[in-house]
Amino acid sequence: MRAVLVGPPGAGKGTQAQILASELSIPKVSTGDIFRANVSGGTELGKRAKSYMDRGDLVPDEVTNEMVRARLGEPDAREGFLLDGFPRNVAQAETLDGMLKEMGSALDAVLELKVDEDEVVKRLSGRRSCRECGRVYHLDYDPPAEEGVCDACGGELYQRDDDREDVIRHRLQVYREQTEPLVAFYADKGVLVTIEAIGEVTEVTGRALAALGTGS
Ligand code: AP5
Ligand code: ZN
């Protein structure tokens, strides 16, 4: 399956992408995770991306598109993938269509996660992420067994630089202006499915698998 997750910051795209990718046996490709790994590794790509990410703006399309092209060309993505955080505007969506055409394929589904903005702000202000394995926690909804330590790998948990309330508000505005038009774009192409992304993580996963036509 070749699928995309779309939804506002904090909708639970990363949380669901990790579970769905494993359920569907396809790699999760998260542009946010790839950028963050490059920022912490101090690479040239990370240096170019950092200031945009800290402000909550989109990294320029030419940088992002080339990074995705390289990732989707890797052997494990040939038979399918789940994109999290890409595309983020109509120009990226058109580039993705072109890339897939060149490979003789197309998207099977675009899954929209719907959550209201107050919930998103609560989710992002309580989020903590593992520096080592990227597992995401929430101080109230999904706390680690030991404060500040990842259950999965023992790594240190940290708060993302872009999870400050002023940056969260800006990311939401960027979502409304640049990313939300993708909902109509993909609805027109007949590949959009939408689910409510509120409730327990496992309930949302069940809705997602059913919407993708892979649930029981
Ligand atoms: P990115 O990393 O993609 O951030 P985002 O879209 O803002 O999404 P988030 O990671 O904040 O949220 P999420 O939906 O994954 O939620 P999560 O599962 O963590 O992008 C960051 C930056 O990178 C961008 O601002 C931009 O600068 C750059 N970038 C990335 N892609 C780009 C692109 N294509 N083009 C240009 N620039 C790009 O969950 C959030 C919290 O809620 C967690 O604490 C979690 O535990 C909790 N939670 C999850 N599900 C539930 C639930 N059901 N109930 C209660 N809590 C829940
Ligand atoms: Zn970890």
UniProtKB/TrEMBL annotation:
Localization: Cytoplasm
One CC-aspect GO term: cytoplasm
**So where does Zn(2+) get bound?**
C130, C133, C150, C153
* Keyword Zinc part of the UniProt annotation: yes
Q: How does it assemble?
A: Monomer.
* Stated role: Catalyzes the reversible transfer of the terminal phosphate group between ATP and AMP. Plays an important role in cellular energy homeostasis and in adenine nucleotide metabolism.
Protein name, entry field: Adenylate kinase
Give the species. Nocardiopsis composta
